[in-house]
Amino acid sequence: MNPPAPLEEALTPDPNSAVSAQAWAAVHEFITGQDRRRALRRELDLGPGNAAQLINLTRAPMTMREIARSAAVDPSAATVAIDRLERRGLVRREGHPEDKRRKVVHLTDLGRQTAAAAERILTEPPRGFADLDPADLATLARIFTTLNSTVEPAPTGEEF
After folding, report:
1. CA atoms of 62 and 74, how far apart (whole Å)
2. Average pLDDT by consecutive 10-residue portion of the chain (160 residues)?
């Protein structure tokens, strides 16, 4: 018997491919159903970029240049975003102690509370996870750790 021709081989379904596609569809459906961006918008009126920036500011105040760099946006985009956060009372700008031409952005008390709420929204496991068997959770963690090790790193920042 002759080996299959390349075209015939390409058209022959791979049983592992079908199982992979089914598993990916189930994972995709679950993850898209857990869209944290909607929760950030609904509960805090924040996008993921602004939420990430507030969380970054909990570590330490930052200059506008540091904010732009950490979000991988140009300085004017960072300024627009910080203006918006400042109008909402989440951050305040102060003169840099060593260079009066620069500003340092600090969280306000409301900003700290909002950052904590954003971090909770972004990191809290979805409903149903707590109901899984601990062995199943360990298996999921192992599988996704393996999968994540094969993924290209994401860009360093996200638009505000």
Report:
1. 15
2. 56 71 86 85 94 95 93 91 96 87 93 97 86 91 89 60
Instruction: Check: CB of residue 57 under 8 Å from CB of residue 115.
Output: yes
Per the CB < 8 A criterion, the answer to whether 124 and 67 are in contact is no
Place of tokens 């860009």: 155
Three-state DSSP class for residue 150: coil
pTM of the model: 0.70
Q: Is 105 helix (H, G, I), strand (E, B) or coil?
A: strand
Burial class (CB in 10 A: 0-12, 13-18, 19+), 51: buried
> What is the phi/psi pair of residue 105, to 5°?
-100, 130
